């Protein structure tokens, strides 16, 4: 299996980019880049490899020293790893050749903010190549005790739990966003909306429009290919809208740009974080927490280990369907004490859980 994998990956044509840097960070998604961002800033000499196109463009927009990951091509990896003294991998970006090649070259390898979903866990623990790679990692720093258990079962030798780096990742540059005609102040934000949720969001908007005054709504799809789906549902509901790239004097704005949601949160009065009304697993609640936004989520939160703690603490409000989402939206705008209580609780949860990046940095420095 290992020889076959290394042979196939070595035959895949890649654009072998490289830049200088003593520490190689690796990530894939925008969320993983955000998680690494405060840790990256602590190292004066680094480079970041990113697998996805969207992640690469986003990293460039942050001014990071970034290259495209060469699809685990061992020959290219050896070039990239020359002069590198440490590899730091985000979350679940487990590429066997990256880890094995680094260890063969005598380089320390760390996984930080480690987390792994149930499906990936069931696959990885059965594959000898992945078990070998994970067992070669010098230290895995996890988000939760459940993640620790999974990594140990997959063969990791040294595993520690530090919490979620994303509680520190929100302290990154804020973009100077301006709107031509759309009134963004005190808008309600639907963040990371995807798939079947689109219809629910549109129903909640229509419900709110019929009961409250001149509210504004911002819909931020999880993936840009969902923009057209959102447009179709809004047209069917007879709701005027405009796009971020060409905003107008409408009550609904669709965010059809990349990497702006974090900066747009500051305009919000409240929000709903998607990927949670259906079985997608949820998305980050930490960004609205930083901005003290009263926030609702659906019941599917298995990809955010801290999310149920927020629900139990009353830091976020749980909704199960579009009717409950519409009801939450009405309360945010009509019940000041309800909104203020949620705002205080979600920000308190954020403050209680930040500071992970300093502990991770100190631990890595002790190890190396």
How would you summarize what this structure contains?
This protein has 368 residues and is of the alpha/beta class. It has 2 domains: 2-161, 3-Layer(aba) Sandwich (Rossmann fold); 187-353, 3-Layer(aba) Sandwich (Rossmann fold).
Number of helices: 17
Q: Which band does the percent of strand residues land in?
A: 15-25%
CATH topology of the largest domain: Rossmann fold
| CATH homologous superfamily caption of the largest domain | Glycogen Phosphorylase B
- Span of the ends, CA to CA: 31 Å
Helix content: 40-55%
The stretches of 5 or more residues where confidence is low (pLDDT under 50) are none
Walk me through this protein's architecture.
- Helices cover 43% and strands 16% of the residues.
- With 368 residues, the chain is of the alpha/beta class.
- The protein has two domains: 2-161, Rossmann fold, CATH 3.40.50.11720; 187-353, Glycogen Phosphorylase B (Rossmann fold, 3-Layer(aba) Sandwich), CATH 3.40.50.
- The strands form two sheets. A seven-stranded parallel beta sheet has the order 3-2-1-4-5-6-7, with helices on both faces. A seven-stranded parallel beta sheet has the order 10-11-9-8-12-13-14.
- It is globular and about 65 Å long.
- The model has no long low-confidence stretch (mean pLDDT 93).
Give the tags:
single chain, 368 residues, alpha/beta, Rossmann fold, 2 domains, 14 strands
Secondary structure blueprint with pairings:
Elements lengths: L1 H10 L11 E5 L2 H11 L5 E5 L2 H9 L4 E3 L5 H8 L4 E5 L5 H9 L3 E7 L3 H7 L3 H9 L2 E4 L2 H9 L5 E3 L4 H4 L17 E7 L3 H15 L5 E5 L5 H10 L5 E2 L8 E3 L6 H4 L3 E6 L12 H5 L4 E3 L9 H6 L4 E2 L3 H13 L1 H18 L2 H12 L1
Parallel strand pairs: 1-2, 1-4, 2-3, 4-5, 5-6, 6-7, 8-9, 8-12, 9-11, 10-11, 12-13, 13-14
Helix pairs in contact: 4-5, 5-7, 10-15
């Amino acid at each position: 299996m290992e020889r076959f994998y290394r042979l196939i990956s070595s035959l895949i044509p890649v654009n072998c980019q490289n830049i200088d840097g003593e520490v190689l960070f690796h990530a894939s998604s925008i969320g993983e880049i955000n998680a690494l961002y405060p840790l990256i800033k602590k190292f004066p000499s680094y480079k970041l490899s990113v697998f996805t196109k969207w992640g690469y463009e986003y990293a460039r927009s942050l001014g990071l020293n970034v290259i495209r990951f060469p699809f685990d091509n061992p020959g290219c990896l050896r070039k990239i790893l020359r002069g590198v003294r440490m590899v730091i991998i985000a979350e679940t970006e487990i590429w066997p050749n990256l880890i094995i090649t680094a260890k063969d070259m005598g380089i320390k390898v760390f996984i930080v903010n480690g987390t792994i979903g149930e499906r990936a866990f069931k696959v990885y623990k059965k594959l000898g190549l992945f078990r070998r790679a994970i067992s070669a990692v010098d230290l895995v720093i996890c988000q939760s005790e459940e993640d620790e258990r999974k990594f140990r079962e997959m063969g990791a030798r040294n595993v520690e739990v530090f919490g979620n780096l994303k509680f520190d990742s929100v302290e990154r540059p804020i973009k100077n966003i301006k709107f031509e005609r759309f009134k963004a102040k005190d808008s309600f934000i639907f963040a990371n909306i995807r798939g079947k949720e689109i219809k629910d969001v549109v129903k909640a908007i229509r419900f709110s429009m019929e009961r409250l005054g001149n509210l504004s709504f911002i819909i931020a799809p999880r993936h840009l290919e969902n923009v057209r789906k959102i447009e179709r549902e809004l047209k069917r509901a007879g709701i005027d809208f405009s796009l971020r790239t060409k905003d107008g004097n409408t009550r609904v704005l669709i965010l059809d740009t990349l990497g702006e949601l974090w900066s747009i949160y500051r305009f919000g009065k409240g929000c709903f974080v998607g990927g949670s009304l259906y079985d997608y697993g949820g998305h980050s609640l930490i960004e609205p927490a930083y901005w003290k936004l009263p926030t609702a989520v659906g019941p599917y939160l298995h990809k955010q280990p801290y999310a149920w703690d927020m629900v139990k603490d009353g830091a976020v409000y749980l909704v199960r369907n579009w009717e409950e989402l519409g009801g939450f939206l009405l309360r945010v705008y009509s019940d000041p004490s309800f909104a203020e209580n949620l705002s205080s609780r979600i920000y308190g949860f954020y403050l209680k859980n930040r500071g992970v990046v300093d502990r991770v940095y100190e631990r890595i420095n002790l190890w190396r």
